[in-house]
Amino acid sequence: MKKTVARLCLSLALAGASWGLLAGAAEAGGTLRLTHDLGMGGAETLDPYDPNRFWPTMNLVFDRLVAPSPKGEAVPELAVSWSASSDVKTWTFKLRPGVTFQDGTPFTSADVVYSIGRMTDPTFNSPVRSVLGIIKQAKAIDPLTVEFDLSTGEADLPLLLADYRALMTKKGSAGSFKDHPVGTGPFKVEKISVEGTTVLDAYPGYWRGKPHLDKVEVVAIADSAARIQALLGNQVDLLLTIDPKQAPLVEHNPAIATQHVATGDWNGLMMRVDEKPFDDPRVRKAMRIAVDRAALTTLVLGKDGGVPTCDDPVWQGDQYSWQGKCGRDVEGAKKLLADAGYPNGIDVELMTSDVEENMVAIAEAYQAQAKDAGIRVKVTTAASDGYWDKVWMKMPFFVDSWGQRPATQVLNEGWRSGSPWNPTHQADPAFDKMLDEARGEPDFAKRRERYLAVQEKLYEITGGLIPYHKVILRAMSSHVKGLDPVLVDCIRWDLVSMDE
Amino acid sequence: MIVLERLLSTLASLALVAVLMFGALEALPGDMCTSYLGKLATAEAVAQCRTEHGLDRPAWERFGRWAGGALTGDLGHALKRDESVVSIIGPRLRNTLVLALAAAAISFPLALGLGVAAGLKRDGPIDLAISSTALVAMTIPDFVAATALVLVFSVWLGWIPGIVTVPPDGPILSLLPGLVLPAAALALILSAHVLRMVRASVIEVAASPYVEAARLRGVGPTALVLRHILPNALIPAIAVMALTLAGLMTGVVVIEVAFNYPGLGRLTMNAVYDRDLPLVLGVSMVLAAIYLGLGLLADLVTLAVDPRLRSALGRGR
């Protein structure tokens, strides 16, 4: 009875709202209202290379040379084709002819050189420099041809250029991002109001054709509960991600549609391989095989909240995904511990923090499971403030959280000796050599074989327990059409529409 | 004399708040640079950021510089938002004032009327209904009240927007539709407190000898209430109202966050989250000044309307 009343009220409200829409804008198109979480506290800027980039608008306004396909391949965007020298250190990219910026000027190689220059400028400190810093120089060969010289062979440069931050901006535009940013994307900025509502208009000259929507509004709502309220109250149409715990609020509502999007985001328990007792590979392995990954995933993320993995930072959607199998082996773990000199089990301290979602839950779930193998875990929750500064990569055993990256990037950033963001302090020359050979192999099939071998080797030696990759939940009004269940930076915004 | 004394003690309290706030923020682990640059910050980047924002200077030096500016009305420059603290706080203070005044405008007449009614009909069915409703309203946490209001009026009925989507510096008129629910949520809690205070005060005054004397002199019931009971019962209520208003100004964090209202409360949350020291200090000082200022005002008003108090203090000296 109560439900019927609620539904009746809701449909009345919706009927009123859609009538209003019909009266307001008769022609097709319409406005899509999405939210952003004000995560940079109002310091958001439309400069794609700035650490405080205004992320939900980025792929609406700007394009990349290369886009990631949902399968993890590099597909043409502003570049139509590319080729490399045999040592994969020199790359030539052909640009798409006829592309214009939103102010009408043509997109050329000079803009690429300028953009890459800013991304890799050591004085500018852009986060994307960690990915594209291997580009020593970008040269314009002719208006539609660019050549990149790399400091090291990288067969997957196109994948690195598909990074969500490697967006192309106009030559000389450094000072323009505050007031009138210009990109080649499907929507142009009409009004920037980071703490209110930012308005974007369709760019009719978009190279893929005029977008279906007329407008996109980006509404700032910092609180996650308030965002759900806004969706339920029909004040916004799309929440790109919601907390899985909020799923029951929207799941059985006929006015709301949800999408599950598999990602390469992960949490992990990181053991430093240069600290006792984790300097012994047997201890590390025992710590890892004591876990029932499927059960742990459900426990921490909820049903359908994640995909179990075998300590593999490369996610299942990547074209180099290894997809190894790893069951729980409590007896095996006990035996490994006994061999390593801990016949009566082992005591460890695990540092965590609620600096990000799930980080405390995963520590507690691990504590409960590991106990069966005689691993006694003391969970210590540190202040979220300063966690990345004082605990992360500094303590012997801590909880970590990473976002999705292509195989070459995550393996080189996280597991190569001496990399600045190497959470387990892994330093294994044989592993590095395998990684170099994989990265420098021009032939795709052979390269894939090598990357699989790299991941298999990693499973043997790693100090990183990575039990799952996350699946994010997206919620939207059932009026939103044409939005595929893909990551934000793969969304084809020009194809999204609102039905009446 | 007494006014000057109260003024001085208010200023001393403000100074104390500044020192305590600065010390507390200083004692937190990490700083604005580590929180701003986040997980992937290199040591050099953090060091560069600290130098850039003067965080490598000793704490007392930074406090001294800040306090010196504050005395001239300059609260410094926010670290994360590239703007002066005063210009960030300005429009948000305005919005919070609008919200507080709207809540007060709904709740004070309501609370006065109901409080007097309940007090005069003490223990009768009217009093019972009013008092128990007030008790329930007082015990409901503000976020529950906010959620319930949104559910009914925004999600089910679709009458009023559930959240505000206006930027902090938007025109006041554009705030109005979104103002209704947060003001109602605040008024609900506020009314209950004031109502109970008025009721108690009315009961006390009604039982006092001079009201009894007036009644014996043959003063009619209306005149008795308007001329004898109300003025005397209102004196303590004024103080309570001023203090609730102060509490309202400073306690709007939950409500503002829940309704996405662009005021000081939401700013406080964000500033603390960003570890933006000058901004947190600035907001705290403004809120403390309002709180203490309204307390001072309440005292002065009480003093002005209650001659007994004045003479009692006068004699004491």
TrEMBL record, chain B:
A GO BP entry: transmembrane transport
Single GO cellular component term: plasma membrane
One Pfam family cited in the UniProt record for this chain: BPD_transp_1_N
CDD domains registered for this protein in UniProt: TM_PBP2 (cd06261)
InterPro entries listed in its UniProt record: BPD_transp_1_N (IPR045621), MetI-like (IPR000515), MetI-like_sf (IPR035906)
Membrane topology: Multi-pass membrane protein
Subcellular location: Cell membrane
PANTHER family found in the cross-reference section: DIPEPTIDE TRANSPORT SYSTEM PERMEASE PROTEIN DPPB-RELATED, PEPTIDE ABC TRANSPORTER PERMEASE PROTEIN
Protein name in UniProt: ABC transporter permease
